[in-house]
Amino acid sequence: MAIDHDVSDFRSVGAAVSNWGRWGAGDQLGTVNLITPERRAAAARLVRRGEIFDLGMPLDANGPQRGGNRFNPIHRMTSIPSDGARPDGMLVSDDIVSFPLQCATQWDGLTHVGYDDRLYNDVPASAVTAARGAERNSFHLVAPHLIGRGVLVDVAAAKGVGRLAAGMEITPDDLDDALAHQGVQTASGDILLVRTGWYQHFAAGDAGTFMSSSTPGLGLACCAWLYEHDIAAVAADNYIVEVLPSRQPPAMYPLHMVAIRDMGLTLGEMFNLEELAVDCQSDGVFTFLLVGTGLKVTGSTGTPLTPVVVK
Predict the structure, then answer these.
(1) Is the C or the N end of the chain the one with fewer CB within 10 Å?
(2) What is the DSSP letter of 131?
């Protein structure tokens, strides 16, 4: 069923692309249901060279966070070799880390965003509590499913630029043009990696620009495109996936609200796609095995991860 890409009100878009009940009233996985065992096996057969590409940010004090509820990881040692050897001569090192689950390269879980007192699959917002976290739609249920065929959609390269301009809205036509430029077609269950080039700011040490309030990203109309193409998850190289500032004020993050709450679509943020993009442009292969599992934190609304592409 074709959906009007011009619909601008996020509630109308959400109703048109809703997956509530699609996989049953009790479903807590959302669109990762589309990554079937058959699709995962087909993705594994894409590996030819055994080359790996690390798409994750380092988890350290030099991360992108600059205040607010999120902070960069704090790493401390609890035991080091200079504490002394044991009677048998063995030395021990041990450490701890404290960080928000969405402070660096991350997946947004299905309780991360909702609206009108509801979360994905008609779950009430009260299912998330201070004491127990997400009692429904916890990310730990989704984590092991995020292995499948990844597809790089290099929008910047298709437009002939190294990096999209601040505030540029990516449209469904832009996604189609980039895929046509690459000679790639999507399939049900794909994990889309959308490159804007915005990660270059962080890589150059400019976290301020990287985390600014004006960034290129997907527009709300892309929700219909993702729904029609049965995309299982979508990740981008900016910190928010969608375009900022919002084109549907006063909704600050309309794509998040529709994608997560209505579609049950897992969103990935701050993926480093630069090295992968160079390789894909070099060998002309834009599909690959993506291993994107995160931490199984019970009751969580998201997770950090080190996504790995194998080609």
Answers:
(1) N
(2) T
